[in-house]
Amino acid sequence: MSHFKQDILNYGDDVGDLDNSPFEALRMLHDRTELHKVHDQLDFEEKILLAYHDLKLIENARDIVQHISNVYDFRLSDTNEIPPDQWWWHLNKIAQGNMDFGIATDIGKVIRS
C-alpha cells in the first residue's frame, strides 16, 4: 500500500458529505487533482478505490455542482482550459449529460460512459 491510500479515503469521505461547506467541497476537487497527479504511483487496489469514489462523485454530480456553485463558477474550468481528463472540474457538464467521462485502471476500463 502506498502512502496515498489515506488521501483517497479522505477524498471518498468528502464525496459523500454534502453537509460540508461549499469551500470544503471545492477543496475536494483540488484534492482530486492532486490524486490525478500521482495516479501512476497508485497500486491497483488504490486505483479501484479511487474509481469507486469517483463514481460516487458522478452519482451525486447535480447536488455537488449546486453546492459548489455557491463559491465556484464552473465556467472557469473552460476559461482556464482545464483538460477533459480532469473531468471533476467539468462536473457541471457531467451533471447535465454534456460530457463523457472515463474511469480507468492500468489493466483496463472500469467504466466508460
Write a structural description:
With 113 residues, this protein is mainly α. It contains six helices and two strands. Strands 1-2 form a two-stranded antiparallel sheet. The longest helix has 16 residues, at 22-37.
SSE topology:
Elements: H1 5-15, H2 22-37, H3 44-59, H4 61-68, H5 75-79, H6 91-95, E1 102-104, E2 109-112
Antiparallel strand pairs: 1-2
How would you summarize this macromolecular structure in one to three sentences?
The protein is mainly α. The chain has six helices and two strands, in the order ααααααββ.
Top keywords for this entry?
2 strands, two-stranded antiparallel ribbon, globular, 113 residues
3D shape: globular
Largest sheet: 2 strands, antiparallel
Assign the structural class, choosing from mainly alpha, mainly beta, alpha/beta, alpha+beta, or little secondary structure: mainly alpha
In helices, the fraction of residues equals 40-55%
How many structurally independent domains?
A: 1
* Proportion of beta-strand residues: 5-15%
The strand order across the widest sheet is 1-2
Q: Round the Cα radius of gyration to an integer and report it.
A: 13 Å
Helix tally equals 6
Number of strands: 2
Which sequence of SSEs, written as H and E, runs from N to C? HHHHHHEE
Distance between the termini: 29 Å
Low-confidence stretches: 104-113
Overall mean pLDDT stands at: 86
